[in-house]
Amino acid sequence: MSETTFPKLFVTGASGQLGRLVVAALLRRMPAARIVAGVRDTEAPAAQDLRAQGVEVRSADYARPEILAEAFAGIDRLLLISSSEVGQRVSQHRNVIEAAGQAGVELIAYTSLLHADTSPLGLAEEHRATEAILAQSGMPTVILRNGWYTENHTASLPQALAHGIMLGSAGAGRIAGAARADYAEAAAAVLTADMPVGRIYELAGDEAYTLADVASEAARVSGRPVRYQDLPPAEYRAALVGTGLPAGVASLLADSDRGAADGALFDDGHDLRILIGRPTTPLATVIAGVLK
Fold first, then answer.
1. What share of the chain is helix, strand, coil (3-state, %, to 5)?
2. Cα–Cα distance between 170 and 152 in angstroms, integer?
3. Given pLDDT bands bounded at 50, 70 and 90, which one contains residue 194?
4. Could you tell me whether strands 200-203 and 141-146 are parallel, antiparallel, or unpaired per DSSP bridges?
């Protein structure tokens, strides 16, 4: 297959945690010359690293609609990775979608939230609004409703091990989490597939775990005692604020745990496993990587 037979792909937020992994997954599937990485700062180290891999880097700030249509010129398919700026996502996503339409992009894939249409999580509101904007745009779309990243829970394990306790408010709620790299691989699979227009994928891990399971596995891998302590959402939020987290972030995390307790982060449809063609990364593997 010649290089030009591949569609020209654009990954927004390409210098972020998920974006970098998506680019890496695409590079395993197609020539670097057909991949464009959108970043805020084209001279930042992360952007320079992408450029060194042969990927074209373009300025694409969600909050600057005046530059987006030019950034998307010549692009066939675009991955809109949801903005990290909670509270500003809807307007920023609208900027991207409108600019993509102006530039003639043939397909937008969007990273939404697991069961966004029915989810009780506060985080779901902006995702629902973005999905509605995409539907109203008339553009061909694919919705990637990502479940919880296992790293959301394992990132704080070093601190939990230091204190022997892991705090949360998810009760015995089962969380079908997967590694961030699994979701990135799924995005790459969709972007390089025969035009899967109109699909909505509910993406979640094969293995559902509780936060008590996370603590137990961390204790097993590390050989150090750590237990999970469940708190009411208000107390958990206060504890997070006490660690220095901004109040808004603490509220979102506590709300997400509350939703998890009610099953909002569980799914057993295996869309993710099917898309990536392999089992999702086990909890134990992610924990071992964090504690190595």
1. 45, 15, 40
2. 13
3. confident
4. parallel
pLDDT value at residue 292: 80
Domain ranges of the chain: 3-146+179-203+268-278
pLDDT, tens digit, 9 for 90 and up, residues 228-255 = 999 999 999 999 999 898 998 899 999 9
User: What is the distance between the alpha carbons of residues 128 and 108, in angstroms, rounded to a whole number?
Assistant: 16
- Give Cα separations from 222 to 47, 140, 154 (angstroms): 35, 47, 13
CA–chain centroid gap for 118, Å, is: 19
CA distances from 12 to 18, 24, 169, 227 (A): 10, 14, 33, 39
Fold of 3-146+179-203+268-278: Rossmann fold (3.40.50)
By three-state DSSP, how is residue 237 classified?
helix
49 to 57, 78, 119: CA distances (angstroms): 10, 21, 37
